[in-house]
């Protein structure tokens, strides 16, 4: 049942969208708040070596995005999305508070990853139910959602990072836990604005017929394309996920963070503050890109989703190659902090061409009754990409900054080329998926 009604609109969108992105905003605040401190906490407090810390970071962030694969199935088949969100958020809040104890460090990471498995796929899969199929606002819903949750990413390093860096790591982790509780309360109190839970189909409802068999053939085509995109995005994330890993280390030792000038001269920018640049730029740049794509769409020139994603991967590659050049030109000293800010500008521009576009693509191609599972499949790319990022991060101290950044640029270029090759099959699958059911059955299939 569609939950949107004009009487419930807020700022031109269903109130339920505000509930969802505010819930996600506080979850992102808690996750990125803790993540902005994680590498520093391991290397400075727990005294782990750089390679071990990078591996722990990679395994943790990978596990956070592996558990949704199982959690999405549990949500779709048994719990339902609302109960999955509530249970998952509660477990995550508990995990954040466990971070106050050094002896429970690994248990805390496991609790956060477990709770996220239920929470992450169950929340955004409710967005489509807020809109009628012909609602013109439906296309921009995921962009609005993506901007909203990045507010949490913006606040996280500023609040949790500053508390942890200046007053003690556990204060930062405690603030992250409070943020998770705030998100849970918003979701529970705003549940009346969300779509009603649908009934799961019975075996009788899905009995095989010739028409259903043809639909299944079309769904297998859809599945092959989605798997190919997820694997390619997994490669892309091997480079992108260095932001909280090796880029954080470079922010600590590779750049000059001292501000010049008469008023602020001598002020050293906290290293965690740079983690706020990415979400801040998402908030600033998204309206500009959406307006640009809207103008292109009016004239029939908007790039297809896979082509946009390819351009995004190449953009991220350019960001790393820029850092490689900067690092190579300052081998004996520290680069200006301005270069790191420019890196985040280019990286975020590329991100907006790939991550929200991919999430929307997976949501549109999700089979009925399997929304959370399909969204979980999208996040599985983050699981594999985070593992890859952790593995690649171990080469940081072996290769040195300049060579490492060149390697990350090569990874981004490879992902961009593969996504460009997936453009044609993705457009074919989307065209068939947008046809009415009867037309889909009769539509010619492609190998």
UniProtKB/TrEMBL annotation:
Keywords: Cell membrane, Membrane, Peptide transport, Protein transport, Transmembrane, Transmembrane helix, Transport. It comes from the Bacteria. It is a multi-pass membrane protein. Its main location: membrane. The chain crosses the membrane at residues 16-34, 54-75, 105-123, 144-164, 170-190, 223-240, 267-290, 310-330, 336-363, 375-398, 404-422. It is found in: Cell membrane; Membrane. InterPro entries: Dipep/tripep_permease (IPR005279), MFS_dom (IPR020846), MFS_trans_sf (IPR036259), MFS_Transporters (IPR050171), POT_fam (IPR000109), PTR2_symporter_CS (IPR018456). Residues 16-427 form the Major facilitator superfamily (MFS) profile domain. NCBIfam families: yjdL_sub1_fam. Belongs to the major facilitator superfamily. Proton-dependent oligopeptide transporter (POT/PTR) (TC 2.A.17) family. This is Peptide MFS transporter.
């Amino acid at each position: 049942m569609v939950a949107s009604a004009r009487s419930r609109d807020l700022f031109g969108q269903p109130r339920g969208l505000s509930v969802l992105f505010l819930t996600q905003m506080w979850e992102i605040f808690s996750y990125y708040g803790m993540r902005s401190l994680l590498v520093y906490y391991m290397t400075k407090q727990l005294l782990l070596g750089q390679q071990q810390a990078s591996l722990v970071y990679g395994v943790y962030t990978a596990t956070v995005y592996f558990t949704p694969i199982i959690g999405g199935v549990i949500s779709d088949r048994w719990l339902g999305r609302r109960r999955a969100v509530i249970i998952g958020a509660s477990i995550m809040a508990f995990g954040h508070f466990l971070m106050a104890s050094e002896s429970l460090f690994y248990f805390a990471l496991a609790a956060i990853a477990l709770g996220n498995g239920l929470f992450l796929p169950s929340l955004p899969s409710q967005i489509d139910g807020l809109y009628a199929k012909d609602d013109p606002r439906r296309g921009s819903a995921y962009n609005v959602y993506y901007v909203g949750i990045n507010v949490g990413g913006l606040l996280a390093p500023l609040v949790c990072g500053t508390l942890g860096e200046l007053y003690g790591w556990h204060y930062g982790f405690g603030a992250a836990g409070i943020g998770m509780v705030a998100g849970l309360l918003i979701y529970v109190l705003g549940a009346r604005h969300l779509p009603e839970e649908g009934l799961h189909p019975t075996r009788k409802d899905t009995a095989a017929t010739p028409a259903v068999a043809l639909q299944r053939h079309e769904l297998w085509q859809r599945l092959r394309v989605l798997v190919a995109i997820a694997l390619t995005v997994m490669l892309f994330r091997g480079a992108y996920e260095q932001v909280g890993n090796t880029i954080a280390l470079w922010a600590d030792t590779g750049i000059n963070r001292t501000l010049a000038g008469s008023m602020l001269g001598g002020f050293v920018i906290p290293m965690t503050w740079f983690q706020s640049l990415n979400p801040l730029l998402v908030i600033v740049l998204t309206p500009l890109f959406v307006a640009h794509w809207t103008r292109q769409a009016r004239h029939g020139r908007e790039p297809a989703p896979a082509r946009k994603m390819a351009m995004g991967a190449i953009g991220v590659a350019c960001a790393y190659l820029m850092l490689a050049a900067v690092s190579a030109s300052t081998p004996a000293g520290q680069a200006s902090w301005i270069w790191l800010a420019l890196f985040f500008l280019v990286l975020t521009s590329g991100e907006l061409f790939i991550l929200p576009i991919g999430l929307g693509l997976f949501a549109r191609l999700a089979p009925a009754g399997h929304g959370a599972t399909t969204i979980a499949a999208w996040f599985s790319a983050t699981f594999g990409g985070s593992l890859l990022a952790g593995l690649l991060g171990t080469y940081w101290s072996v290769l040195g900054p300049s060579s490492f950044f060149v390697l990350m640029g090569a990874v981004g270029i490879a992902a961009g080329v593969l996504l460009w090759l997936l453009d044609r099959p993705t457009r074919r699958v989307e065209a068939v998926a947008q046809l009415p059911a009867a037309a889909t059955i009769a539509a010619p299939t492609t190998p």
